[in-house]
Design goal:
alpha+beta
Length: 84
């Protein structure tokens, strides 16, 4: 496996072994980047919609898993709300 980081914590062999096992998992795996290729940070939405663009909240992630049952949706027009 190609290593793209060189810090001591990340470069432990156990993490590379775990990553290999996850890729072999028959149920399939997805990275957060697969699920949300263009994340936007710094936006808080409270006016949710019945359908639209999925809006991932911190509370939607538990035990390293995204809980699909509580998914909220936005209009997708949130880039104008971002304040950097």
């Amino acid at each position: 496996m190609e290593r793209s980081r060189y810090d001591a914590e990340h470069s432990q062999e156990q993490y590379y072994e775990l990553a290999s096992k996850l890729r072999e998992y028959s149920g399939g795996v997805a990275t957060l980047g697969d699920l949300c290729p263009n994340p936007i940070n710094g936006v808080e939405i409270r006016d949710y919609l019945e359908e639209g663009v999925p809006y991932l909240r911190v509370g939607d992630i538990k035990d390293y898993t995204v809980k699909p049952s509580g998914v909220k949706y936005s209009s997708g027009c949130i880039r104008s709300l971002v304040r950097i």
